[in-house]
Known about the structure:
8 helices; alpha/beta; TIM Barrel; single chain; binds zinc ion; binds D-xylitol-5-phosphate; globular
Amino acid sequence: MLISPSILTxxxxxxxxxxxxxxxxxxxxxxxxxxxxxxxxxxxxxxPVIARLRPLSDMFFDVHLMMQYPHRLVDAFAAAGADLINFxxxxxxxxxxxxxxxxxxxxxxxxxxxxxxPAEAVFPYLDQLDMVLVxxxxxGFGGQKFMADMLPKIAxxxxxxxxxxxxxxxxxxxxxxxxxAPLVAKAGATxxxxxxxxxxxxxxxxxxxxxxxxx
Length: 215
Ligand code: DX5
Ligand code: ZN
């Protein structure tokens, strides 16, 4: 599986060093959790911070928007240097128009699903997507317990993507660690967000190697 570390658990006073830590761990992407305090009960950062991080890293910026109105800031996140813009199908933005706006900037597209939302919610958009994100915790905070009852949703998405012959990646986010990664890989996930498990790991490089070998 590809590994996309979330900087939500990192030391926000030293972001440059934390980016360096992620790079040295051997991870593939950088997962940036944008929260607006409305869609989720937490607030993080937005385009100005991402724009400042962009020159410091050559990693793929996987931007996860937990926002009520993501379409309002698509242009700003694209200009800030996002490589992929991922927003929630439960947001208040028009899904097709928001996906088209992301595409118009030449960026990769993704839709995210909260735990209560069924896989079928993204089926109408699958052929416009590079990735689907299945939340395996309630969005808002790092360090929560993995929800094993999300595994059938991952499998349902995998089956539909394969049935239609599409090459849409499936990302999982929340509680991913060496014990839960094999379960999501078996269900069909191809990208794993890793937050607290990486930032608290005694040997981050070994952890990424272990996760890379799964799936
Ligand atoms: C939660 C975020 C996740 C979170 C994952 O809303 O979307 O990316 O940081 O953190 P862990 O791996 O600690 O569950
Ligand atoms: Zn996330």
